[in-house]
Amino acid sequence: MSMEKSLAFLSDIANQYKESYLSIVNLRKKMKFSSDEKNFQLYRRGRYAEFNLVCDRGTAFGLQSNGRIESILASLPSDVKWSYAKTKEYVKMEKNLLKYINKDWNV
């Protein structure tokens, strides 16, 4: 494939991605979420932050090599929530979520 065809192909992929993503955003941008759903989102973000700080090798390397802390932690979500114990609502929402994600890597 020539360079011109390769660039045209990549450009088409980018445009299709943009159009697909924008259609999803436009469909869902006015959706309202309950306080339970928002709290569950914050809880899941907290779980991501836990994983990133405890298990992620790139984060560990950055911290151990005296890297710039602000840059290392920039990928963490700004709003998170940690809970000592899951509520019944969290358990229900998590069970629903697990129907859609790959269970092989989910801890």
Automatic annotation (TrEMBL):
UniProt KW keywords: Heme biosynthesis, Oxidoreductase, Porphyrin biosynthesis
Enzyme Commission code: 1.3.3.3
Enzyme class per UniProt: oxidoreductase
Oligomeric and partner information: Homodimer.
GO terms for cellular component: cytoplasm
Gene3D superfamilies: Coproporphyrinogen III oxidase, aerobic
Entry keyword NADP: no
Lineage per the UniProt record: Bacteria, Pseudomonadati, Pseudomonadota, Gammaproteobacteria, SAR86 cluster
InterPro entries: Coprogen_oxidase_aer (IPR001260), Coprogen_oxidase_aer_sf (IPR036406)
Molecular function terms from GO: coproporphyrinogen oxidase activity
Repeat in keyword set: no
Protein name: coproporphyrinogen oxidase
One example of a Gene Ontology biological process annotation: protoporphyrinogen IX biosynthetic process
Family of the protein in this entry: Belongs to the aerobic coproporphyrinogen-III oxidase family.
Species of provenance: SAR86 cluster bacterium SAR86B
Pathway entry: Porphyrin-containing compound metabolism; protoporphyrin-IX biosynthesis; protoporphyrinogen-IX from coproporphyrinogen-III (O2 route): step 1/1
Pfam families with a match to the protein in the record: Coprogen_oxidas (PF01218)
